[in-house]
Amino acid sequence: MLMAIMARLMVYPSRYYCRKSGVPMSAFLEAARSKEAKQHLKDAASRPSKLSFDLGLINPVSRKIWKICGLWEEIEESED
Known about the structure:
Blueprint: H1 2-11, H2 15-21, H3 25-32, H4 35-54, H5 60-68
């Protein structure tokens, strides 16, 4: 859950910044809900999720939580 919150904080500007910059809330919401924005969130969380997977920290429950948050993409085991 924390990673889902942190990824959004890293990727999206704050509402304060949007308001101060004069960005209409409708434009911000449209951009935030786009397929590109969702992919950008997944990309931002991909390295931590891969590391968690490699360290054995991902179990069926945590994997489901990552999927619900929209941050999980299937990771293939590496042969390193």
